[in-house]
Give the backbone structure.
Amino acid sequence: MTVHRPLKPARKAMASADPRPKSAVSSGVGLVGLAGLLAAVAVGRATGADGPISSMLAVLACALPMVLWTVLVDKAWKNPSTGLDWSRPARPHDETREISITKLAGLWATFAIIGALYCICRWYWDGQYLFAMRMLAWGAIPLFLLSIPYIFWIDRRLEAPKDGCYMFGRWLTGAGEEKIDRARLVEHFRSWAVKGFFTAFMISIVPGNWFETLRWTSAEILADPVAMAWFLVALLFLIDVVFATVGYILTLRPLDAHIRSANPYAQGWVAALICYPPFILMNPGGVLDYQADEGAWTVWLAGHPVLLAIWGGVLVLLTGIYSWATVAFGLRFSNLTHRGIMTHGPYGFTRHPAYLAKNTFWWLAALPFLPMSGSFVDLVRNTALLAAVSGVYYWRARTEEKHLMGDPAYQDYWHWMERNAPVPRFFARLKRSPARPMMPEVVVAE
């Protein structure tokens, strides 16, 4: 009997005829950062260094290999998207000195505004945020001093040095006859609002995740499948948090990790901010508090070790996808911004792997339709509110796409995903839509 196997060659032919758009980041960046972080975890567990300062050293252990890979291997500083011109000698200092001084005035004034807002907003002086404020205070003077040679150096290489930071400085010092570019000025404030808000938050949660990972003993981890699952979930959340912290800190042009644009749509900011303190709606007592226990699965499956192992394994897998989606960004993770289009890793399967994995995790871990109280009212409430939470993340995904659609590179990626990626094609089949659905409305932010 003759066996025909045309499927695999056909798939290869289709892939070569319709290649995936190139990703803005190589896979190697995330992998070396992950190796550095896992080495730090191993050292931390061996030495018992579970304190907050040790957690910052773990952030450094993750960041340094990624910076070296980006500079030495990927040579990202040569990318046209950096805005740096290496085709000619650097401009003379006399040509850029006034621009740099004006830009420093704008940059330092921006630092002062963010610092003042940290002082004014009470939540920054309570609980986990106290550590973040201490770290930022310690870093303020080095940041101030290093900004001087950095700005003077980079302005000699930038094709267009008069950016939003310069416009703010020019406005502060008196514009004279030069017209202020309001679009660049607004973009400057949007970008720094993202950086200022999320950097403090990410630094504040690193120590807790670090401690949660290191507190487990080997005996506890190997005691049962539930314990192992929770340890692995904690480790994967630590990976996500550390990579995100690195991403918010290292928004630098020579690494091609700068913010190209921040989301200009108010609904995008609302959708994102209600997922983070102090605006978060999902916390206990919040409007979207579905009051479900993430350990509900361990109660309902108690006494069934095989099912517990399988269920725990699925939750670990989902958390792994969620963490992988952050690792894939390398140095560039950030909410509400465009810092290059990711097409590799989990972004070859779905455009929003983190949101999809996170929400699936919540449904399987909390089991809101099986309330531990046994109350029908709790069943309806918990299920409806968790559905609303998932709706918020769908809303976030849509507002992010609305922002990114202004980049032709994202439009190409969107089209390719609709033709090739399993998750978009699956949902297309559920909707009984054509194989190649129409692209959403393209809105370009002015």
